[in-house]
Write a structure and sequence with these properties.
The protein is globular, with a radius of gyration of 21 Å. Strand 3 (56-59) and strand 4 form a beta hairpin. The chain is 42% helix and 16% strand. Helix 1 (20-30) packs across helix 15, helix 2 runs parallel beside helix 3 and helix 8 packs across helix 13 (352-364). The strands form 2 sheets. An 8-stranded mixed beta sheet has the order 3-4-2-1-5-6-7-8, with helices on both faces. A 6-stranded parallel beta sheet has the order 11-10-9-12-13-14, sandwiched between helices. It is an alpha/beta fold. The chain has 2 domains: 2-196 and 385-400, Glycogen Phosphorylase B (Rossmann fold, 3-Layer(aba) Sandwich); 199-383, Rossmann fold (3-Layer(aba) Sandwich), CATH 3.40.50.
Length: 401
């Protein structure tokens, strides 16, 4: 079977960012399928061009092909520039997709939702099924965060969302929290393939000594956040918590990653004179094992917005696979996972004092944190192993096509 994936934010294992689709594609290829991915050369995390990436890249003896098409480069400059980026990829990926032959299924993924239109149109022109994957409840998240405010744009975006749900032959969501939202907006057939991780990529017993040495973290109790530095990630709360931990010089807060808000966060940390906060550039997925091994606890945080209670963040499962206790400042379905597994501590979103208190608690009792981490590792091995989830996706696709 030949699967065509349209995905502007596609990230390979040697790049920084979420690699869910690269891992799923490699699994599908390993089980006798072909996958062609049409992606952007612009990093969705940093907004930079991936100069080292060729326009066409082949893996697995040519059975996995990654085509990178033109995308307007100013992704993080402003909302309008971001829209230009989305529409430029929507057009260029359509023309690239027309040239891909022998396709049996077109797979679209959102966000950005506009590439879903490209996937739907290509599927109809090629007379093959259209699978639409929902990774984010857009535009609902954008409306609650305040990014999308213009009433006409909101109405058009909600119409487009319903159109894609209704016209998809199969809708796949990556969190159980999305199911009711998507079903109410017209999805005809709906399946859950949750986010997860590959536990084989992480060693829960590693110490990360080299990473600690390189970044001057020896002897510290390291709390690591790894991921996007964007509006939704609420990292200003982390800086406020760090200020409350000034009396504990052995505690280091490490923010690893990049994003639109990083320059403002750097300026804020300098203004607050936070010596206990370390900003580290993003790392490819292949290097994340060493980074997480250097942590004593790992942080996942989002703004206190009701709809964020529906998400299954990828980073949480990576933290658990690395055997590290999770400091979770996100309520909802992912809180249920952490509390059922006893794999970390929940902190009310938007509360820097509670976050600082939870960090103190783990720093004062590292053995309790170690046991939380091992329970989290066991949980992902049993319930969120990406290889098992990829197998479920493969069976769905094979049955569907």
């Amino acid at each position: 079977m030949h699967i065509l994936l349209i995905h502007q934010a596609f990230v390979a294992l040697d790049q920084a960012g979420g690699t869910r689709h690269h891992e799923l594609a490699r699994y599908l290829v390993g089980h006798s399928h072909r996958v062609t991915v049409i992606a952007s050369p612009i990093s969705y995390l940093t907004g930079d061009a991936s100069d080292s990436k060729p326009a066409r890249d082949e893996e697995e003896n040519g059975r996995l092909v990654i085509l990178r098409t033109y995308t307007y480069p100013a992704l993080h400059r402003s909302f309008i520039h971001r829209v230009f980026s989305f529409f430029s990829f929507m057009a260029s990926s359509f023309w690239a997709g027309l040239r891909v032959r022998g396709v049996d299924l077109v797979w679209g993924t959102s966000p950005p939702i506009f590439q879903g239109v490209t996937a739907w149109l290509l599927a109809r022109l090629k007379r093959v099924p259209f699978l639409f994957e929902v990774r984010d409840l857009w535009p609902a998240f954008a409306i609650q965060v305040g990014v999308l405010r213009q009433p006409l744009l909101i109405r058009l975006s909600e119409w487009l969302e319903r159109f894609l749900y209704r016209h998809a032959d199969l809708v796949v969501v990556n969190s159980p929290g999305f199911i009711e939202h998507v079903r109410q907006r017209g999805a005809r057939r709906l399946e859950l393939v949750p986010n997860g991780t590959d536990p084989r990529m992480f060693d829960p017993y590693a110490t990360g000594a080299i990473f600690r040495q390189v970044h001057c973290l020896e002897g510290k109790f390291v709390v690591l956040y790894a991921g996007a530095h964007g509006m939704s990630n609420d990292l200003g709360v982390v800086l406020q918590a760090a200020a409350q931990l000034a009396d504990r010089p052995e505690i280091a807060i490490v923010l690893l990653g990049d994003g639109k808000e990083k320059p403002a966060l750097l300026a804020q940390a300098a203004e607050m004179k936070l010596d206990n906060v370390h900003f580290i550039p993003p790392a490819p997925k292949l290097e994340m094992s060493a980074a997480l091994a250097a942590a004593d606890a790992c942080l996942a945080i989002l703004k206190p917005i009701p709809l964020y209670a529906t998400v299954y963040p990828n980073k949480v499962f990576d933290y658990m696979a690395a055997g590290r206790p999770v400091l979770l400042a996100i309520d909802g379905v992912i809180r249920q996972v952490i509390e059922e597994a006893q794999a970390g501590l929940f902190v009310p979103p938007g509360d820097p004092t509670a976050l600082a208190g939870a960090i103190r608690r783990l720093a004062d009792d590292p053995e309790a944190g170690r046991l939380m981490g091992l329970r989290g590792r066991q949980c992902v091995e049993e319930r969120f192993d990406r290889e098992k989830l990829a197998e479920k996706l493969a069976l769905l696709i094979e049955e569907f096509v």
